[in-house]
Amino acid sequence: MVFAPMSTAELRDLLGSAAEQADEILATLRANRSHLPVAFPGLPRRFGKDAVGGGQRLFGEATVDLDAFRTCDLVAAYLVTSLEATEEEIVDVFAHGDIEERAMLFRCLNFMPLGNTTSRLLAEALRTNIVLHLEAAMCDSNLLARSIKTGTIDGDTGNRLLLKFAFLDMDLTRALKAETHANETLSTMLQDLATEREAAGRSVWKHTYLMLGHAVCPGALGRLIGGLEHGDDGVRHAAAQGLLAMRNNNQKLQPLLAQFAQERMPREPRDNVREMLQQLATN
Amino acid sequence: MLIFEPHIHMFSRITDDYEQLSLAGVRAVLEPAFWLGQNRTSVGTFIDYYETLIGWERHRAQQFGIHHFCTMGLNPREANNDSINRDVLAILPRYCEKDSCVGVGEIGLDDQTKTEEIMMSEQLELARNHNLPVLVHTPHRDKKKGFERCIAIVKEANFPMERVLLDHGNEETIKITRDLGCWSGFSIYPHTKMDPARMVSIVLEYGIERFVINSAADWGVSDPMMVPRTVVKLEQAGVPREKVEQLVWNNPIDFFAQSGRINQEMLAQPASANLRETFDGNSVLRGQDPDKM
Q: Which of A224, A234, A150 is nearest to A187 (CA)?
């Protein structure tokens, strides 16, 4: 595993006043790297969990949203990348780590080369429904999208990770570029979950509509058009978004979708939904 | 009234206990690492147990709105096992650094052997290295002598008395510990050791300074509700409410706050509970609908 030296320098810059203390820990670890499992758990209480701030930033191929990354996450990433921690060292800390250690390690993946460590830890994410961990693993960065795109994780794992968003009602927009990995299999999984939820009288994950729009599966068109009549403003908005995505992917649907959009428009009370219907109604 | 239960082995308890504790006002529990009823045969089982304390058990407590803390240590009973005791001490530093670990314990004496004394001394050093207070188990047999020996070991180690909680005390031991500056714990049991009525008498005679009470509920005949029950008895006996609150809430927090990892502010709200969350794919719901819980 080769670490990009630039990223550790950039990470250090972002630490600001915490950099010196982080360097002290790093020096201890350089002298005795077996101390990593002892140093790691204390990072949140020593460096805090406040967001670093600064919005989205590029680190090589990685895009991370620093408004969601905490100081302790960046310190952890700084230590792990500076030490060039091995896959086994990282997996050991993860396996014996507490909830915060695991969250920090998921965040660290963004600053490391994609590889076995990424796939092993993302496989762990599949085994949990702890929102903190799923957010750390998949949100506020393009890690998931990069991992799928590069084949670091296989398509089935990618789909099941994306399905977690629906299961726990997480915001898909926080997984940067995730929608680019919409596919028919995932849409079918989302459609099935939505049907199951509706049968139980429960709400449907709103991003279902967008993903179905990006990758059509049997029943997708009916769900999206039906969504325009839903009593919930958010659902109608999501359905209109999905229909726009569907139209953009398949212009042959334009006349049909325009017909439904025009019929709905006069009855639609929300401006933001009406604007999208207007787009659907016109070429 | 909010309660911090400072010694309870939830590992051995069922979810009904968590629910009852929560309804009775128990906002936080402290689970000391302890003997599981039979001796372990390898260090690996200690690792898994410690990880349960920082993982699954913490998750379980949170599902009922209860904050879960622990102390880490090699209990005196198994300290006597020379085939594992050194290996267990070697793994403890990583667990002493965990966020929810607010002390070293249960350490102390049980059979009062030389090996137990060595292990207790070494774990006092462990606590010093990690800036943690210690929870000391005292023997149930020949208790007075055991208390005196524990105190002597603490003094020999020059460990600060205010960071020591000598647990499982009674009317006799309070006379030994009262002026030492250490903290005294009283484990209230349904039928043995210390009961609510005796605890009321102790409070009426000695007050509540540097006292904590606990249920020490475990795998044996014990009652996790003994602290709430004792609260009722104390109030019925005329102990002012603020003193009772000091005893069951402020005192345990003050003691474990010496770790720097716990404070009143973080306990102001119940632990957040998302019933959809699982830990390692496991849930307390056993298939029940989270929306109907």
A: A224
Cα A227 from chain centroid? 25
CA A233 to chain centre: 24
Smallest CA–CA distance, residue A122 to chain B, in Å, is: 13
Contacts of A96 in chain B (CB under 8 A): 47, 51, 94
Quote the pLDDT of residue A126: 93
For residue B58, being part of any structural domain is answered with yes
Average pLDDT over every residue of B273-290: 75
Asked if the Cβ–Cβ distance from A99 to B55 is below 8 Å, we say yes
Chain A nearest CA to B218, separation (Å): 24
Reduce the DSSP state of residue B155 to 3 states and report it: helix
The domain in which residue B240 lies consists of: 3-267
Residue A121 to residue A79: CA distance in whole angstroms: 18
pLDDT of residue A6: 57
What is the distance between the alpha carbons of residues A185 and A212, in angstroms, rounded to a whole number?
10
Res A125: pLDDT: 95
CB contact under 8 A, A98 and B280: no
Residue B165 inside a domain? The answer is yes
Provide the pLDDT confidence category of residue B147 given band limits of 50, 70 and 90: very high
Quote the pLDDT of residue B291: 67
What is the ipTM score, two decimals?
0.85
The number of folded domains in chain B is 1
Q: Which of A39, A98, A131 lies nearest to residue B55, judging by beta carbons?
A: A98
CATH number where B195 lies: 3.20.20.140
Q: Is the pLDDT of residue B254 over 90?
A: yes
Short-list B89, B8, B76, CA closest to B47: B89
Please choose, from the candidates A32, A49, A145, the residue with its C-alpha nearest in 3D space to the C-alpha of residue A104: A49
Contact yes or no for B50/B94 (Cβ under 8 A) = no
Indicate the length of chain A as a whole number.
283
Q: Is residue B24 part of a domain?
A: yes
> One-letter amino acid identity for B83?
S
> Does the reported pTM lie above 0.80?
yes
Q: Is B189 left (phi over 0), alpha (psi -120 to 50) or beta?
A: beta
Which residues of chain A have a CB within 8 Å of the CB of B55?
Answer: 98-99
CB A158 within 8 A of CB A149: no
Confidence of residue B293 (pLDDT cuts 50, 70, 90): low
Name the stretches of chain A with pLDDT < 70: 1-6, 283
**At which residue do the structure tokens 């630490």 appear?**
A15
| Residue B143: band (very low, low, confident or very high) from pLDDT cuts 50, 70, 90 | confident
Give B280's contacts in chain A (Cβ within 8 Å).
127-128
Which of chain A's residues have a Cβ under 8 Å away from the Cβ of B274? Answer: 131
**Amino acid present at B246:** Q
Q: Alpha helices, DSSP H only, in A130-206? A: 131-138, 143-149, 155-167, 184-199
Q: At what angle do helices A99-108 and A131-138 cross, to 10 degrees?
A: 10
B275 within domain boundaries: no
Angle at which helices B196-206 and B226-236 pack, to 10 degrees?
50
